[in-house]
């Protein structure tokens, strides 16, 4: 025990005598550990954000959507041409027959060209649907109530409004009980949805719109009152779409891929080439996102690991220079009875202390920078002069993981010991007589 304490005291004493050199030697380790933790936290934060967005689409869902085929966009080369495409009610009937074990099958039908309230107007994102959409699409109510079976039976002129649409059309008023118009037809607002974080990123790209601007009405109302023809006044386009989307909700995650294959066969049979229909399986995208995130973590970790390697090489270079500088000291210690083992341990203690302290400082730096990045990026647009170059909704989510801290610190400590071993062995092999004669 006395031997260990003496060795540690000698090692720490030498590091204190050369504070600046010790700090610069450990700087590579500090930056390497900080880089590992920061990269891991950014990668994990981005992964969690993407997975969360995909989860909100419903991991048990298969979404079949009507899409405008390329030829219909320019058919005949004339504006105002009525385009018929997408899913039909007959398709929906077949889907219901083919999936008797599905938890629910939820249709959506797009209606109207514009949403209006007094002088405020927006391009319509009104959809007729059923009460099952609330659970199928993982939606939550902020206020009021959602559509009911009674609303469907009565073909009620009622609607549930998305959070952002409510803010746009009712900036200073309470939307509950108020009336909006879908084209010229009035709809009473009975509920407001909670905000959904799918306006950007992977989820928003899949949905194809910001669903916070949706308005949901009973599907029976959509069919009887509004019909199938949708007129877009801004583009003078007329489309006849019977069913815009269908959500097929599998009983559990294990049956999702089986349901997806069957759905693809059913749709492909009725829509050869599937030019006017697309299918989205969030579960498949979820698994792909997990695999891609793991790959990126490995890539980012490898890049950060290079910093640790450089730090280790820096320690070895400094310790080799230290061996030459302290040759006479080594000779005196050997002459006074120190063994080669003692010399090796003295130098290993110094490198171990450097790498350990550097690792601790690097951990603190990495944690601080990870938190700073997550805090500052959403506020970059507020910076004077330069704020205009950043988007207001910019974000770089971070999530600090225990494994990244432990791995980075362990690798840092081991790096110092491994790269310090050769200088330590070289010092221990100094001939005492030659060392004593060294100036």
Concise overview:
The chain has 439 residues and is an alpha+beta fold. 54% of the residues lie in helices and 16% in strands.
Account of the protein in words:
It is a single chain. With 439 residues, the chain is α+β, with helices and mostly antiparallel strands. The chain has 15 helices and 15 strands. The chain folds into two domains: 2-53 and 288-437, no CATH class; 61-249, no CATH class. The chain has helices spanning 2-17, 19-56, 70-73, 89-98, 133-136, 149-154, 163-169, 201-207, 219-226, 256-270, 282-325, 327-335, 340-376, 402-428, 432-437; strands at 61-66, 82-84, 104-111, 114-117, 120-123, 126-129, 141-144, 158-161, 179-182, 185-193, 215-218, 229-232, 237-240, 245-249, 277-280. α4 runs antiparallel to α10 (256-270). The two termini are 34 Å apart.
Shape: elongated
Mean pLDDT: 80
Measured by DSSP, the beta-strand proportion falls in 15-25%
End-to-end span in angstroms? 34 Å
Count of discrete structural domains: 2
Rg over CA atoms, rounded to whole Å, is 33 Å
Q: How would a crystallographer describe the biggest sheet?
A: 12 strands, mixed
Total helical segments:
15
Order of helices and strands: HHEHEHEEEEHEHEHEEHEHEEEHEHHHHH
Number of strands: 15
Which runs of at least 5 residues are low in confidence (pLDDT < 50)? 72-80, 199-205
Class by alpha and beta content? alpha+beta
Task: State the helicity in percent bands.
Answer: 40-55%
Write the layout of secondary structure elements.
Elements: H1 2-17, H2 19-56, E1 61-66, H3 70-73, E2 82-84, H4 89-98, E3 104-111, E4 114-117, E5 120-123, E6 126-129, H5 133-136, E7 141-144, H6 149-154, E8 158-161, H7 163-169, E9 179-182, E10 185-193, H8 201-207, E11 215-218, H9 219-226, E12 229-232, E13 237-240, E14 245-249, H10 256-270, E15 277-280, H11 282-325, H12 327-335, H13 340-376, H14 402-428, H15 432-437
Parallel strand pairs: 2-13, 6-11, 8-10
Antiparallel strand pairs: 1-14, 1-15, 3-6, 3-14, 4-5, 4-9, 7-10, 8-11, 9-10, 12-13
Helix pairs in contact: 1-13, 2-8, 2-11, 2-13, 2-14, 4-10, 11-14, 13-14
């Amino acid at each position: 025990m006395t031997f260990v304490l003496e060795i540690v005291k000698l090692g720490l004493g030498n590091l204190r005598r050369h504070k600046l050199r010790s700090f610069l030697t450990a700087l590579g380790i500090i930056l390497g550990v900080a880089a590992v933790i920061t990269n891991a936290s950014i990668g994990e934060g981005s992964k969690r954000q993407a997975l969360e967005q995909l989860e909100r689409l419903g991991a048990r869902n298969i979404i079949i959507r009507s899409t405008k085929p390329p030829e219909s966009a320019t058919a005949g080369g004339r504006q105002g041409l009525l385009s018929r495409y997408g899913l039909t009610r007959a398709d929906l009937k077949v889907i219901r027959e083919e999936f008797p074990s599905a938890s629910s099958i939820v249709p959506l039908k797009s209606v109207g060209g514009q949403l209006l309230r007094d002088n405020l107007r927006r391009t319509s994102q009104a959809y007729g649907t059923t009460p099952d959409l609330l659970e199928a699409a993982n939606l939550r109510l902020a206020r009021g109530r959602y559509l009911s079976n009674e609303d469907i039976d009565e073909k009620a002129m009622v609607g549930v409004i998305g959070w952002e649409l409510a803010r746009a059309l009712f900036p200073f008023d309470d939307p509950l009980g108020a009336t909006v118009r879908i084209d010229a037809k009035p709809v009473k607002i009975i509920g407001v949805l909670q905000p959904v974080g799918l306006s950007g990123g992977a989820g928003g790209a899949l949905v194809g719109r910001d669903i916070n601007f949706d308005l949901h009405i009973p599907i029976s109302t959509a069919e009887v009152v509004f019909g199938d023809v949708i007129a877009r006044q801004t583009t003078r386009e007329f489309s006849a779409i019977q069913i815009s989307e269908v959500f097929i909700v599998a009983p559990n995650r294990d049956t999702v891929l089986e349901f997806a294959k069957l759905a693809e066969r059913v749709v492909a049979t009725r829509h050869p080439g599937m030019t006017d229909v697309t299918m989205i399986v969030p579960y498949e995208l979820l698994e792909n996102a997990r695999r891609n995130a793991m790959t990126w973590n490995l890539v980012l970790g490898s890049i950060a690991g290079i910093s640790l390697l450089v730090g280790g090489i820096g320690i070895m270079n400094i310790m080799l220079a230290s061996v030459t500088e302290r040759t006479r000291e080594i000779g005196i210690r050997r002459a006074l009875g120190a063994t080669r083992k003692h010399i090796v341990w003295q130098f290993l203690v110094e490198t171990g202390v450097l790498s350990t302290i550097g690792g601790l400082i690097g951990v603190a730096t990495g944690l601080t920078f990870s938190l700073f990045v997550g805090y500052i990026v959403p506020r970059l647009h507020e910076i004077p002069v330069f704020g205009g170059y950043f988007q207001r909704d910019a974000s770089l989510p971070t999530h600090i993981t225990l494994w990244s801290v432990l791995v980075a610190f362990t690798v840092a400590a081991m790096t110092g010991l491994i790269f310090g071993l050769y200088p330590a062995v070289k010092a221990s092999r100094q001939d005492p007589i030659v060392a004593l004669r060294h100036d």
